[in-house]
Write a structure and sequence with these properties.
With 221 residues, this protein is mostly beta strands. It is 0% helix and 71% strand. An eleven-stranded antiparallel sheet has the order 2-1-11-10-9-8-7-6-5-4-3, with no helix packed on it. About 5% of the residues have low confidence.
C-alpha cells in the first residue's frame, strides 16, 4: 500500500510549462501533494536460480493552488505502472542463513509499461495529455541480513534508451527498504521509491521523478 507520493521535476503539457519545485507564488509548492488513490501488487516465483517477478502500481494525485492574480490552478496526474522481469540469483545465502552475513544478489531484465495522464485546469485554459510507454529495463537488487528478524533491500534499474517513439529517452528506478520478518510466511517492508522519466512528445514533455514512501505486506507460500 502506498502512503504518499509526489512529483518533482519539469513538465510541459501542450506548451504550458509546469515546475513542481516552484514556490507558492507560482502555484506549485506541493505539486500533486494530495493522494486521491493508490494501490500496488507484487508477485514472484522462482525455481533454482531463475525467477520471474510481476509488479503493478496505480497512483492518482491532484492539487489545487491559488495564484498571485487571485485565480486557481488545478493539477492532476494519473499513472499506471506495470513491470514484468526475469531474474537470475547471482549470489545466494547458505540454506537457512539469516541475520548478519546473509547476502543475496539478483540480476534483473524485463520491461516496464507506463501510462501517464496529466492535466492542468485554470480559468483561461484547460489542457491535458497522456502517454503510454513500453521501456526495456535492466538492473539488479540485493538483500542484506542485519538481524534474524530484519534485513535491508536495495533495487536499481535503468531503461528506455530512446529506442523507439514509445520508449522513454531514459527511465531509472531506485527502491530501498527495510524488511521485518514477522513470521515464516509473512514480511513487512517499509521503503521509499524514486521513479524518474525523461521523454518528450508534441503534447507532453516530462522530465520528472515520481517518489514517495510505501508500506508493503508480503506473504510466502
Amino acid at each position: 500500500m502506498t502512503t504518499h507520493y509526489e512529483v518533482r521535476g519539469d513538465i510541459a503539457v501542450k506548451d504550458r510549462e509546469l515546475s513542481p519545485d516552484q514556490s507558492t507564488g507560482d502555484a506549485a509548492e506541493s505539486f500533486f501533494s494530495t493522494l486521491d488513490g493508490a494501490f500496488a501488487l507484487h508477485a514472484e516465483a522462482e525455481k533454482g536460480r531463475f525467477g520471474l517477478l510481476a509488479d503493478a502500481m496505480y497512483v492518482s494525485l491532484g492539487d489545487e493552488k491559488d495564484t498571485r492574480t487571485g485565480g486557481e490552478v488545478e493539477w492532476s496526474l494519473e499513472a499506471f505502472i506495470g513491470e514484468l522481469c526475469g531474474y537470475y540469483i547471482l549470489v545466494e545465502p547458505k540454506p537457512g542463513a539469516k541475520g548478519w552475513g546473509a547476502f543475496r544478489a539478483d540480476l534483473l531484465a524485463g520491461a516496464r509499461v507506463s501510462h501517464l495522464g496529466l492535466g492542468l485546469d485554470a480559468r483561461r485554459f484547460d489542457v491535458d495529455s497522456d502517454k503510454t510507454l513500453l521501456d526495456p529495463i535492466i538492473g539488479g537488487r540485493i538483500d542484506v541480513g542485519l538481524l534474524d528478524w530484519l534485513s535491508y533491500k536495495l533495487r536499481g534499474d535503468i531503461g528506455g534508451f530512446g529506442i523507439s517513439n514509445d520508449t522513454s529517452d531514459l527511465v531509472w528506478n531506485i527502491d530501498t527498504a527495510v524488511e521485518f520478518h514477522v513470521a515464516r510466511w509473512m514480511d513487512i517492508d517499509l521503503g521509499y521509491r524514486w521513479l524518474n522519466y525523461d521523454f518528450g512528445t508534441d503534447d507532453l514533455d516530462f522530465d520528472a521523478t515520481l517518489q514517495g514512501p510505501y508500506v508493503m505486506v508480503q506473504f510466502r507460500i
